[in-house]
Amino acid sequence: MTEIKFVAEETDLHLLECRKNNFETENILLLLTVGVVETIAPSANHGVTEAASLSEPQRRKPKLVLLKPAPTKCKLPSPAPQQSPDKISPNLDKSTFVKPTPATTVNINNPQTVDQIAHELAHNDARPATWADLYWALIGSREFNTDEAKVKALFSWLCSIPTDRDAFVTMEELEQGVKDGVEFADEAKKLKSKTLSPDSPEVVVNEFTRGKSTYLRAFESLCRYSGIPCRMVKGLAKGVDYTVGMKLTDQKMPPEPGEQSPIHQIQHAWNAAYIDGKWALFDSMWAAERLAMSANARLSQIAKVGKMEYETDMFYFNANPSVFIYSHFPFEEEWQLLNPPMTLQQFQDGVLLKPAFFTHGLGLFSHQEGVIQVKDRLIVKLAIPPNLVNVLLFTFNLKLDGRDEMFEGVNLSRFGMHEISPRDCTVTFSFRFPKTGAYKLTMYARKVGDPLFTDICEYRVEAKGHDSAQPSEKPGSINIPPFPPTAQSHYGPTEKASDLKVKILPPDMDAIRKSTDGVFEVRFAMTNPTEKLVRMTARLKSLLHETSELNGCILVRTVDACPANTLSSVKSGGSTGTVVGHPVPTCVITAFLPSAGEYALEVYGAPANADEDTSYFLISRNAPRIDFANTQLRAVSQKVKRSLQSEMCVNKRKND
């Protein structure tokens, strides 16, 4: 008998943002599993690896290469005056404030792209000796027409510079460069001032790279010396020290120095700059500290090498105030730049929304508050833009008490599933909670073809259990089984179905179906009827039966059938008839369900011209179900428990 390889598709690495100061190390790893049916681990879909401890890189002493000095025609603008804490200059104009956008609204928020010239200059071996040299390279030589373009160049450069070397060449380096005959060294030494102002970019940015200043001060210095008013905005930020459900109201704001309160823990500061006639918001620290990863690199591997590479997240450049407010809450209400402003209560109660939530244009369809109280089940829905419903992929991570991913030897990812509805333009996540307690629920998304998932939102779920627990049950036990054992949590057509140009019939069929007679059928055809039908096979999975018991419960056959959407009614004279389209090759898969319970039907496909030894890729997963009778519930529950205990013993032997 030919051995069939089943491949559970997904990207090898599922890495999210890691920030050095707001350090988020919740990284999800999706394993690519290749092998015969028996070798695919049922819990391989959501294994999670923690980021290794990262040490600060050693400072480099690079070979001196000088940026060409600015020409004599370069005229530097007069520095904008430092902003007073008590006076805003220019004044805030409330007519420029924007209307808040509810998180329920589907609205794609596209950040600007990085200024590529500034980015390349930051990584160039050639460094500026003076502020004039940098200003000319970034702004003076480029004939910008707007303040925004100027600030974009400054922002992109600052967020891209390596922090293990001085950004500006020092006088000591120039003196040595003159001795070594380095190009431009003599000219640069003559132009470099020996008495620099302590707030000048040459001083502040070099102090920043040495760990003695901040992105905040460096960005302010760059803007001011470019003639653009800039100031600091203090407030709260939902960063690494923030947890969903943290109480922020009824506390003094801002807190007293040294006060140990939730508000003190999540204090943050960002910038406001006056560009093109209005104030705008910037957070260069959060923009600069997103870890750049390739699809085939792992955080632990990079940590061993000791070289971390970061990319600039332009979501925080001239940020949309109606989006920025979901993560940044200023102590002074006017700096929300919103009309009407958000209250601290709303900020406290809201879902933790990440940049990708807005860049993908998602909306909160069901739950608008970050803390959700349930008994033992939960359904969360997100709205998807219609043009992205077939483009976005999702997954999730579930942790008990924010730490434990296992429950009695079973990964908590087994207690969740999700499906995308093209008809409703939603993604629906369904969860079961096997134990009372607080769960950290994080959801992720990526576009088809992108190598990495990114976190989009986070909830805190408090599972209370039922009021009438059985006396024999353990304290905190809910006694609820996980979903059938599958390689991933996604139900419905997969990314590989699109690659193989296969469609399910009908296209809007729900992934979760109830069967009253124990028979479940699903059909597939090619999106282009003229193409040859791919090869398909299927597996049936359940916690109630061994895999071997279900091998004979699947019937796969190919027939010529008329797709449902080619049927139409016509009138001819006084009678009505039906016109049927041309029959097309259709794969019909029938599952015979041996007993009441839940099942997962996994359908695998391979190219039509593939040889016998080819790998079959998962193209669809459906969840047929026969409802329990009340008298069967206890017996079935006990059978599920025995199945899980057996699985746990097998896993333990493998670990040993």
TrEMBL record:
- One protein family per Pfam: Transglut_core
Q: What is the lineage of its organism?
A: Eukaryota, Metazoa, Spiralia, Lophotrochozoa, Platyhelminthes
Which InterPro entries did the record assign?
Answer: Ig-like_KY, Papain-like_cys_pep_sf, Transglut-like_Superfamily_Mod, Transglutaminase-like
The record places domain Transglutaminase-like at 205-286
Q: Organism source for this protein?
A: Opisthorchis viverrini (Southeast Asian liver fluke)
Which parts of this chain are annotated as the region Disordered? 71-90, 465-493
Q: Which residues cross the membrane?
A: none
- Tell me what this protein is called: Transglutaminase-like domain-containing protein
